[in-house]
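Reviewer 2 asked us to include a model.

Predict the structure of this chain.
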Amino acid sequence: MHQNEHIYEEAKLIALLNDGSEYAFQLIYDRYRNRIYRLAVKYLSSPLLAQEIVQDVFLKLWFERANIRTGRPIESWLVTVAKNMIINQLKKLARDWKAAGALKGINTITENPIFDGLKEKEYQALLNKAIDGLSDMQKAVYRLAREEQLSYLRIAEQLNISPLTVKTHMSRALDHIKSFFAERGILFLAAFLFS
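Predicted model (structure tokens):
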């Protein structure tokens, strides 16, 4: 495809997207999702986190579709949004690892594989108890996302809700779980969130 044809086709797609065309959105998603995914994996080194970045970037595109300008390449908009989200995710991970490092420094128990296995089982039992305290919808979203590793878009389809509602339920579920652990003086480690 020649450069002028590409620019013209993209301008048409953006115009359709501005009007709320799901077909145009799907074409843009199919065309650029792998580029955004590769960018996120490169910096985050986590396929699961990278997939969440892809979902968040395209959710933002959908909700801001009416404001996207036809004269600007959509790829540059998507990459800029992705980079900002990646930076925010890296900052969050740095805070989580810093907190985990501080907790590890406080913990003076000797390294013992049997003890570590018990700690992991106890931690998992607490996590299950925290999950039991979620609303039915939050529990469903959490399990589909973390245990079945479905994307927010697939969860939305399966539960017949919007992807933004999925994201809201997931965010509230994680906040509840973190609070549950914090009330017991335990750090809810990011490693368990993304394993």
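The CA atoms of residues 142 and 170 lie 6 Å apart. Residues 105-118, 190-195 have pLDDT under 50 and may be disordered. We have added this to the supplementary material.
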